Every structure is written in C-alpha cells, then in structure tokens.
C-alpha cells in the first residue's frame, strides 16, 4: 500500500509534460493515489509587462484548455485526476493553502534552478517549499524512467534525539517507495571530518590525535547496525567521506541513484545537515529529492 494517497502537482504556465508531471502520474498509477494537477500563474511575474487584458485572458484560457485535455488523457489511462488553474501573487501561500484544503500528502514539483546571484537576493521558491510545506516534497530535475529504480535513504549519524527519529522516518519512507516502485533500496551516509572536532572553550577548535578516526569508526559501526536492522544488503550501503553537499552531489553525478530521500527539519534557517544539505543538493542538475518532514 502506498504511503501517499493524494499528490499535488505544481506546474507553471509554460510547463507541460515535465519530469515532475511524468513522475507524479507514474506514482499515482502504481498506487491508486489521487492526482491534483495545478498550474500556478504568478500574476506579477507573468503579467507585469502584459498590459493588454486580451493577452492575459488568452494565456489563462490556453492553460485552462491544456489542463482539460491533460486531465482527459490521464483519466483515459485510469487515473483519478482533478485540475485547477490558480492566478496568484503569492505562489508559496497559495500552494500551502491548496495542500491543506485538498488534504494532499505529497507535493511534486520540477526543480527550478536559479542563478547564484538571484539566490543571494531572493530565497528560491523550492527552498521555501522545503522549509514551509507541511507534507513531503518531491522535487524532480531529471528522470530516466517514470518510476525510480534506485532509491537511496540519506541518514545523518551526527544527529541525536529528533535527528535519529528523522533517520528512521527517512528509511521507512524510502523503503515504502522502493516497494511501491519495485526499486532497489540503498542506504547513504556522509562522514564529514570537519564536524568531528571539539570546541575548546575560548581557544577555538581543537583536534585530538586519532579523534577523527575514532569518530569515523564509530559512525561506520552505527551505519552498519542501521543497515542490518533494516536488512539492507552490504553492496547497497554507501558510507561516504567529506563535506556532505560535495559527497552527495558526486554520488549523484556517478548515476547511481534515481531518488535521494532526505530528512527536512522545519525551522527558520536552512543550515543544518538535514535541511541545508537538502536544499543545496537540489542545485545538481540530475538530482531528484524526496524531502521527508520531521514529525515529532
């Protein structure tokens, strides 16, 4: 049985058969989930320079017609589909309201790659969705197949308490998705030596002789215990070393995984591993992330 019952697909006015829509349709087909396809038209971005009301109405009507045609095609394939065209000046707020109103439990959206300068000036919508969405978020950049065949659960063994609980949520969600898609489940962790140093009060950061190696050994042992507990084969366990973002993006670049399932704390700053890393990993052009919200 699928863990997701109602999928919210978020598209822009110029987006049609995108990777996100293909992935959402495949997930709905494999699970029987309801599919809500939404085209969001940003009133300011789209119509800011479009003074002619006839041009506005033509664009809206074009999207209404496309949604109707797409819904008919998807229903013909046996899917339960609803559609909506949303004109808004607040895309984030509108999406969150729609998710709550419809009772969706997964948001599916194409990754929107932003220039670095723009990211410095304006927080990308994808990052805001990761931060504020009350449900899991599947951000899709590129797909080789409609359904994923290789799924990796990324855990953070540096965390304790809530972080450990979130690791379990990540693995359970990844396992459920793998069962639904008949995919292989992998386990992934990055051991970052830079995070294993001890702060010496007033003296900065100190590294005790052999401390990094001890932490690495302890984390590898914890990683293998986690893999044993969830019955993940040794050849599907990936213990990486180095800065988390770099290590994960290199792993993605090697083409070993279709979806990385990561934890996503709901907090104001996206700087912790389970949050900041999720957001920054999205910048890789081949990355597809399923971000699982921490549930207390």
CATH architecture of the largest domain, please? 3-Layer(aba) Sandwich
Distance between the termini: 23 Å
Radius of gyration: 21 Å
Strand numbers in spatial order across the main sheet: 3-2-1-4-5-12-11-6-7-10
Instruction: Please write the string of helix (H) and strand (E) elements.
Output: EHEHHEHEHHEEHEEEHEHEHE
How much beta, percentage-wise?
Answer: 15-25%
How many domains, as an integer?
2
The dominant shape is: elongated
Largest sheet: 10 strands, mixed
CATH superfamily of the largest domain: HUPs
Helix amount, in percent? 40-55%
Sequence stretches where pLDDT stays below 50 over 5 or more residues: 197-209, 267-275
Question: How confident overall, as mean pLDDT?
Answer: 83
Number of strands: 12
CATH class of the largest domain, anyone?
Alpha Beta
Output the number of helix runs.
10
Domain UspA: 12-140, 162-293
GO cellular component, one term: cytoplasm
Family: Belongs to the universal stress protein A family.
Subcellular location: Cytoplasm
Give a brief description.
With 296 residues, the chain is an alpha/beta fold.
Q: How does the SSE layout of this entry go?
A:
Layout: E1 6-11, H1 19-31, E2 34-42, H2 43-47, H3 53-76, E3 81-88, H4 91-102, E4 106-110, H5 116-121, H6 125-132, E5 136-140, E6 150-155, H7 162-181, E7 184-191, E8 198-200, E9 204-206, H8 211-229, E10 237-241, H9 244-253, E11 259-264, H10 273-281, E12 289-293
Parallel strand pairs: 1-2, 1-4, 2-3, 4-5, 6-7, 6-11, 7-10, 11-12
Antiparallel strand pairs: 5-12, 8-9
Helix pairs in contact: 9-10
């Amino acid at each position: 049985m699928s863990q997701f019952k109602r999928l919210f697909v978020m598209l822009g006015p110029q987006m049609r058969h995108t990777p996100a829509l293909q992935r959402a349709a495949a997930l709905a087909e494999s699970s029987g989930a309801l599919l809500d396809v939404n085209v969001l038209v940003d009133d300011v971005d789209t119509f800011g320079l479009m003074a002619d009301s006839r041009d506005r109405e033509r664009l809206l009507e074009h999207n209404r017609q496309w949604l109707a045609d797409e819904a008919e095609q998807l229903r013909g394939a046996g899917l339960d589909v609803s559609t909506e065209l949303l004109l808004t000046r607040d895309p984030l707020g509108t999406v969150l309201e729609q998710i709550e109103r419809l009772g969706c439990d997964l948001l599916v959206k194409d990754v929107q790659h932003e220039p670095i300068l723009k990211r410095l000036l304006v927080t990308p919508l994808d990052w805001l969705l990761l931060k504020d969405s009350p449900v899991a978020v599947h951000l899709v950049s590129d797909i080789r197949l409609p359904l994923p065949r290789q799924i990796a659960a990324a855990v953070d063994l540096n965390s304790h308490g809530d972080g450990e609980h979130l690791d379990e949520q990540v693995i359970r969600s990844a396992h459920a998705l793998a069962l639904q898609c008949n995919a292989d489940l992998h386990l992934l962790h990055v051991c970052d030596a830079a995070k294993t140093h001890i702060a010496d009060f007033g003296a900065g950061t100190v590294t005790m002789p052999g401390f990094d190696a001890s932490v690495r050994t302890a984390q590898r042992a914890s990683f293998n215990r986690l893999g044993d507990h969830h019955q993940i084969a040794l050849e599907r366990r990936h213990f990486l070393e180095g800065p988390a973002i770099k290590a994960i993006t290199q792993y993605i670049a090697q083409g070993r995984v279709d979806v990385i399932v990561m934890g996503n704390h709901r907090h104001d700053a996206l700087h912790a591993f389970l949050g900041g890393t999720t957001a920054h990993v999205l910048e890789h052009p081949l990355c597809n992330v399923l971000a699982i919200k921490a549930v207390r």
